[in-house]
Amino acid sequence: MARTRTLFSSLTRRGPHPVLRGDLAFAGIPGVVYTPASGYHLPGVAFGHDWLTDAGRYTGTLEHLASWGIVAAAPDTQRGLAPSVLGLGHDLTATLEVISGVRLGQGQISVAATKLGLAGHGFGGSAAVLAAAGARRPSAVAAVFPAVTTPSAEAAAAALSVPGLVLATPDDATSLRTDALEVGAAWDGAVLRVLDKAEAGGLAEKRRIAGLLGLPGSSSRTQRTVRALLTGFLLFHLSGDKTYRDFADPEAKLPRTGRPDPDAEPVSTEDRIVALFR
Q: Peptide bond preceding 151: is omega within 30 degrees of 0, i.e. cis?
């Protein structure tokens, strides 16, 4: 456990690689891409944003992944009041095609087609799960506090065999807007972790108008914890680095995480969906 704590602590901080920023617009997709300064056959991940949250609100998270050697790209699409989760899922898949199909930077960076992953937060987490059920299967998928959507990420997760990471907040069982526990339970082989004192909207950065919309603001604690768990999981599954095997082991105890509360009264799917339109 001491070794795992040390790894976790290390992963809460930026990694050893200098980071470059690029624009996905060159390929016709609004969005951003962050890469290590150089490297061939790197792992890559497409990251989906939450509802009413642009890709720029994840700069710290995307830079963090890139600093640990993972090319991280985020399409900045489906940002309206009534976005399509399938549309964002399609854009995530297209983003993977872009970053694995061309040389990045000044031609000194490439992404291996066999080391691709999907990830996302809230609405984007559900989009990542739905995209994983498509024709091109990624090597790993991570859903951070996935939101209730139509179609359902829970139903899509039940059909997945790809390794998954699902992160939940302590109040997920009674939340009207997230269904991480259901997604994790439906997904055979997924790692489900409940983050201590985490806030469902806290991963997005600098959400100054969030309060006006009834959404939670940023949480530096949530960001540090999610970044560590996400990075370790992706390094194991995409890079094959066995140093981080505990981050992909559902039985491993990691800092700042726990198990779902078996006594919590769940909210029905109908109530969750109704809440989306209130």
A: yes
Q: Give me the domains of the chain, ranges plus CATH numbers.
A: 2-276 (3.40.50.1820)
137-168 pLDDT, tens digit each? 899 999 999 999 999 999 999 999 999 999 99
DSSP states of 191-229 as a string? EEEEETT--TTTTSS--TTGGGGT-----HHHHHHHHHH
Quote the tokens at residue 89.
């899922």
DSSP result, 149-196: -SS-HHHHHTT--S-EEEEE-TTGGG-SSB-HHHHHHHSTT-EEEEET
Helical H runs in the chain? Answer: 2-11, 59-67, 85-101, 123-132, 153-157, 180-186, 220-239, 269-276
Sign, CA torsion 111/190/177/228: negative
Instruction: Give the pLDDT confidence of 201-212 residue by residue, as tens digits.
Output: 999 998 555 555
Q: Tokens in use for 138? A: 């990624």
Counting as low any pLDDT under 50, the low residues of the chain are 273, 275-278
- In Å, how far from its chain's centre is CA 160? 16
What's the predicted TM-score (pTM) here? 0.92
Helix axis angle, 220-239 relative to 2-11, nearest 10°?
110
Place of tokens 């990471």: 165
